[in-house]
Write a structure and sequence with these properties.
This protein has 246 residues and is α+β, with helices and mostly antiparallel strands. It has one domain (3-245): 4-Layer Sandwich (Penicillin V Acylase, Chain A), CATH 3.60.60. Helix content is 17%, strand content 35%. It has 5 helices and 13 strands. The strands form 2 sheets. Strands 3-4-5-6-7-8-9 form a 7-stranded antiparallel sheet, covered by helices on one side. Strands 10-1-2-11-12-13 form a 6-stranded antiparallel sheet, with helices on one face.
Length: 246
C-alpha cells in the first residue's frame, strides 16, 4: 500500500475502519481480493513475491504495509515485504510479539511501515527507525514516510476520513482524489520532481505506475467487511466485497 488511513476507536462497536490505496507498477502481476487456498487469509496476492500488501485473517486479524521511500537505500537481494503481512495473518502471535520476532531480520528488507491489529491492540512499526507505535483514538494515516507525517495527501485524507466513515461511496471518492500538491508542499524523498508531483496525489496515474486498487475494511467485534475496487489499465474499475463473522 502507498496510502493507508484508519479510524481507531477501541471499545466501540467498530474499533477499526481502514481506507487505503495500493500503488504499484502496472507490469507487476497480482491477483484480486479472495480467500486464499487454506481459507485463512482474505487478501489480494502479489504474484512476484507471493505475499500481500494488506489483508484479513478469518479470525479478524488485520495487517497492512507501506514502503518507506528512499531510493538511496536500495537492497538488490531484499526479500518481498509482502511476506511480513502474510506471516502475521497466518500466525496467532499478538501484535507486540510479532513485531519483536521481526527485529532480528528487519535489516534484510527495504524500509517499511507496518500496521497490525490482533483484535485487541493496534500497533504501527517503522522499520527505518525500529520504532513501535500505539495510536490515540481518532484518525491516522501513513504513506511512504513515518506515520502521520504531514504530507499533503496524508493531511487531506486525515481531515476528510471521519465525516465519510459510514459511507463506502464517500470513502472511495476520497481515495480517488487526483489533486497534485503544489511544488512548495512536496517532500524531498530522492525521486525526481516529476515523480514527487505525481506521487503527491492520493490516486496516482502515470504511464507505467499508478493506483491499482482502493480498499475499505471495517472490523467490528465479531464481523468484518472488505471492499476492493480494482483499477487495471485497459479495463473498467471492478468491485469485490466480502463479509464474514468470526
Amino acid at each position: 500500500m502507498c496510502l493507508i488511513s484508519f479510524h481507531w476507536q477501541p471499545g466501540s462497536d467498530t474499533p477499526l475502519v481502514v481506507a487505503a490505496n495500493r500503488d504499484e507498477f502496472y507490469d507487476r502481476p497480482s491477483l484480486p481480493l479472495s480467500w486464499w487456498e487454506d481459507g485463512k487469509v482474505l487478501a489480494g496476492r502479489d504474484l512476484k513475491g507471493n505475499g500481500t500488501w494488506m489483508g484479513l485473517s478469518n479470525s479478524g486479524r488485520f495487517a497492512a504495509l507501506t514502503n518507506f521511500r528512499d531510493p538511496s537505500r536500495n537492497l538488490p537481494q531484499a526479500p518481498s515485504r509482502g511476506r511480513i503481512v502474510t506471516g502475521f495473518l497466518e500466525d496467532e502471535l499478538e501484535a507486540t510479539d510479532y513485531i519483536a520476532s521481526l527485529r532480528s531480520g528487519v535489516h534484510l528488507y527495504h524500509d517499511f511501515n507496518l500496521l497490525l491489529y490482533d483484535r485487541q491492540l493496534l500497533l504501527g512499526y517503522e522499520s527505518r527507525h525500529d520504532c513501535t507505535l500505539t495510536f490515540d483514538p481518532g484518525t491516522h494515516a501513513v504513506s511512504n514516510a513515518r506515520f502521520d507525517t504531514p504530507w499533503p495527501k496524508v493531511d487531506a485524507v486525515k481531515r476528510l476520513l471521519e465525516p465519510a466513515l459510514n459511507n463506502d461511496a464517500a470513502l472511495l471518492q476520497l481515495l480517488a482524489n487526483r489533486n497534485i500538491a503544489k511544488d512548495e508542499q512536496l517532500p524531498c524523498t530522492g525521486v525526481s520532481l516529476e515523480w514527487e508531483r505525481a506521487l503527491s496525489a492520493a490516486f496516482i496515474q502515470m504511464p507505467e505506475y499508478g493506483t491499482r486498487c482502493s480498499s475499505i475494511i471495517r472490523l467490528s467485534k465479531t464481523k468484518a467487511s472488505f471492499l476492493e475496487r480494482r483499477f487495471e489499465p485497459g479495463s473498467e474499475a471492478a468491485d469485490l466485497c466480502f463479509t464474514f463473522t468470526f
